[in-house]
Amino acid sequence: VLRAFDPELGRTVALKVLLEEHAGNAEMHRRFMEEARITGRLQHPNIVPVHDIGRFADDRPFFAMKLVEGRTLA
């Protein structure tokens, strides 16, 4: 998960990206996109909303979510 800036909406977002090592794995692509779609349909105060999904030029999927500031789980 990366911090990114959405220039169209003028806001900072969290960008979840499929790792490069899974780029050629069709099953990982499917599961990643399923996570984005399921999460995007949920509405709950403790679930971060999904704003957008897409693919980079190298075909790796991503989804943009609300950025929640705080400490890492580590």
Present the secondary structure layout.
Layout: E1 2-6, E2 11-17, H1 26-41, E3 50-55, E4 61-66
Antiparallel strand pairs: 1-2, 2-4, 3-4
Question: Your description of this structure?
Answer:
By secondary structure, the chain is of the alpha+beta class. 22% of the residues lie in helices and 32% in strands. The protein contains one helix and four strands, in the order E-E-H-E-E. A four-stranded antiparallel sheet has the order 1-2-4-3, with helices on one face. A hairpin with a 5-residue loop joins strand 3 (50-55) and strand 4 (61-66). The longest helix is centred in the middle third of the chain and has 16 residues, at 26-41. The chain is globular and about 30 Å long.
Q: What is the first-to-last residue Cα distance? A: 14 Å
Strand content: 25-35%
Helix percentage: 10-25%
**Reading side by side through the largest sheet, how are the strands ordered?**
1-2-4-3
Largest sheet: 4 strands, antiparallel
